[in-house]
Design brief:
GO molecular function, one term: 5'-3' RNA exonuclease activity
Structural class: mainly beta
Keywords: Signal
Largest sheet: 10 strands, mixed
Number of domains: 3
Protein name: Polymerase/histidinol phosphatase N-terminal domain-containing protein
Distance between the termini: 51 Å
Strand content: 35-45%
Number of helices: 5
CATH topology of the largest domain: TIM Barrel
CATH class of the largest domain: Alpha Beta
Number of strands: 28
Domain Polymerase/histidinol phosphatase N-terminal: 165-229
Signal peptide: 1-20
Length: 465
């Protein structure tokens, strides 16, 4: 709080009455020096009774270098999520909130009288510092009808099977460049069974996914909890109204509180692209608190290989984290991050939020480069059949059966806690492999399928022996 107050010393305030009967404008200006990078600055302004719309415009210098992120909290305060009314990060330079509508990323509803706060957060500052201006227009008017949101359906069927989906994506509600209409249309065209909405630091999209309810595409709520300085993580399986806060540091020691909030909704917490920047590990929070790791983000590359190595080393130490893959898509095409590439394929008891999350939590998951790739891994032991994510009885022989489709001219590798167990050339589009694993030779087996250039085609979570 002291840091926030120190930053307020750079603040100037001007109030302009644009039209006595229509609106008033509040202009706030300030300067952020280079040494205040990543500091949170709350810019307060008073909203009089009778206001039905708030419009905010942001300007700052050296916009090709500086980045100033932006969000807003209403009169309920900014100390927790109670007053949260939206976040656009650095994706927008202006937004509005009205009683019946709002800019993407922001939440329409009652414009309560009192002190509101705009949160500005510099994630890049030029050596000369950053000068900024906020223009806030307060518009009075006749009270509008509050429009209730329409969250997505939570269950489409109860048919057990393998379901294909994408766990990481963005639209105009954060820094994506497509509408929710366009995203849903593309997901259906690619025949995905489910998608998980993960906008940066906002639940605005989650409030209205029910507009797209259908019998063949399940939409699950989520949020990419985003701290530029400390890393990103996905909260998946949230209730529509849940917002998971991001405003804390690793040294605060409270990440467990926010992961616990996700679990309270029945959701899971997934570490995103942990080697996002130049090959350095950019995720700084305590990974022990998290359920899984996004080891495959978009096209396979060296950063994904580093994430895979980190996950594999954890497995060998007996740390069970679920591996998932996702596109992190922002645009419809022309990017290494295209929707549904890769896909997280989950064995679930049905196409529902709870069933998909249960399947992921139990590790009944493999990752495929696309919809033409499929992989079946089963293990027979002591008269029973086990699959990906299952635990066999200790010290029993394991008869492994693999069926792979869509992986012609690749190499399949069976991997254990001591490294490579066996490798197999896949010459045909459909191929089966049978092998035995001796009791006690490994605590798990998992499978990777790669092209000759080491590009990943598919990989599984472990079967635990």
């Amino acid at each position: 709080m002291k840091k926030h107050l120190r930053l307020l010393l750079f603040l100037q305030l001007t109030v302009l009455f644009v039209s006595a009967q229509d609106s008033s404008k509040v202009v706030r200006k300030g300067f952020i020096p280079k040494d205040k990078l990543f500091e949170l600055l709350y810019v307060p302004f008073d909203v009089p009774a009778g206001t039905t719309e708030i419009r905010v415009k942001e300007r700052y210098d050296k916009m090709k270098v500086n980045v100033l992120n932006m969000g807003i909290y209403d009169a309920n305060g900014y100390q927790d999520a109670a007053g949260f009314r939206g976040w656009s990060g650095g994706a927008k330079k202006e937004f509005f909130i009205a009683e019946a509508s709002a800019s993407t990323g922001y939440i329409a509803g009652n414009i309560n009288a009192g002190t509101w706060n705009i949160l500005v957060y510099p994630s890049t500052i030029a050596p000369e510092g950053l000068s900024w201006t906020l223009e806030i227009t307060l518009v009075p008017g006749k009270q509008q009808k509050i429009v209730e949101g329409k969250p997505a359906a939570v269950q489409l069927n109860t048919i057990a099977g393998w379901y294909r989906g994408d766990l990481h994506m963005h639209t105009l509600h954060s820094d994506g460049r497509r509408t929710t209409d366009e995203l849903v249309a593309e997901a259906k065209a690619k025949k995905l069974d489910y998608i998980i909405s993960t906008e940066h630091n906002t639940n605005a999209a989650n409030l209205n996914w029910g507009r797209y309810d259908s019998k063949d595409l399940l939409i699950i709520n989520g949020e990419e909890v985003t701290s530029t300085r400390y890393g990103h993580w996905n909260a998946i399986g949230l209730d529509a109204k849940t917002v998971v806060d991001w405003r804390y540091k690793p040294e605060d020691g409270i990440i467990g509180k926010y992961v616990g909030r996700v679990h309270q909704d029945g959701g899971l917490a997934i570490i995103n692209h942990p080697f996002y920047d130049k090959g350095d590990k950019t995720f700084k929070f305590d990974e022990k608190e998290f359920d899984g790791i996004e080891i495959w983000n978009g096209e396979w590359n060296v950063l994904n290989a580093l994430a895979l190595k980190w996950w594999d080393e954890s497995l060998r130490k007996g740390v069970k984290k679920i591996a998932i893959g996702a596109s992190d898509t922002h645009i419809a095409s022309g990017s290494p991050n295209n929707l549904g590439r890769p896909q997280t394929v989950v064995f679930a008891k049905g196409l529902s939020k709870n069933a998909i999350l249960e399947g992921i939590k139990k590790g009944r998951v493999y990752i495929a480069a696309g919809d033409s790739v499929s992989l079946q891994l089963t293990v027979n032991s002591a008269g029973k059949t086990y699959g990906i994510g299952d635990q066999l009885p200790k010290n029993t022989a394991a008869d492994v059966h693999l069926t792979v489709k869509g992986c012609k001219n690749t190499v399949l590798m069976v991997i254990g806690d001591k490294g490579l167990i066996s490798s197999h050339q896949l010459a045909d589009d459909v191929q089966t492999i049978d092998m035995k694993v001796k009791p006690g030779s490994s605590s798990y087996i998992r499978v990777e399928v790669r092209k000759a250039d080491q590009t990943m085609v598919a990989l599984t979570n472990p079967v635990w022996l």
